Amino acid sequence: MDRDPQSWARLGHALRASREHRGLTQPDLAALAGVSARSVQDAEGGTVPKRRMPYTIGRIAAALGWPEGAVDAVLGGAAPPGDGWRTTPVEQAQIDAEALAGIMTAAMVRATEHATAAEIRAATRIALDELRRQGYLPETDGVQPSTNPENS
After folding, report:
1. What gap in Å lies between CA 101 and CA 53, rounded to an integer?
2. Which of 18, 39, 41, 134 has minimal CB crowding within 10 Å?
């Protein structure tokens, strides 16, 4: 296990930035991860473990959506997961709202067994509206989403 204080400080900073980006408080993240708020504080504070990697670090990272192995990668000097998108302006996005809606709908179909098509389309619309509200997608120009069943 890496015991370098700078590596742990970098990990702590990355965990905190990821939590803040998601709009979570430390107690919120602790509840999502199933760990104590103190564990989140220690992780974000860059506390170097005394003996071995605390199991709570993996739970915290997973609750933030980090992939398996990301903690070790960050400790080893790699960039935190998801860092790259922050430097890409929204205007450079390579996907339009209709294509994103198709992808989201397909993902929801695979993830849910008993939802109706109408419920899935409604959930997709809600997600797209939220992405627009937060500035990740441009506001609509009056054009309604596709009603083509092939896109649903």
Report:
1. 40
2. 134
Identity of the residue numbered 149: P
- Cα(40)–Cα(34) distance, rounded to whole angstroms? 10
Average pLDDT of 72-96?
A: 64
Residue 135 backbone phi and psi in degrees, to 5? 90, 10
The residue among 15, 82, 2 whose CA lies nearest residue 45 is 15
pLDDT of residue 78 exceeding 90, the answer is: no
CA distances from 129 to 42, 62, 79, 150 (A): 36, 26, 30, 22
Q: Which residue type is seen at 12? A: G
List the structure tokens of 81. Answer: 């997961």
CA 3, 43, 47, 16 dihedral sign is positive
Residue 135 neighbours by CB under 8 Å, 6+ apart: 90
3-state secondary structure 3-53: CCHHHHHHHHHHHHHHHHHCCCCHHHHHHHHCCCHHHHHHHHCCCCCCCCC
* 28 vs 6: CA distance, rounded Å: 26
Share of the chain above pLDDT 90, in %: 25
Q: What local confidence, expressed as pLDDT, does residue 34 receive?
A: 94
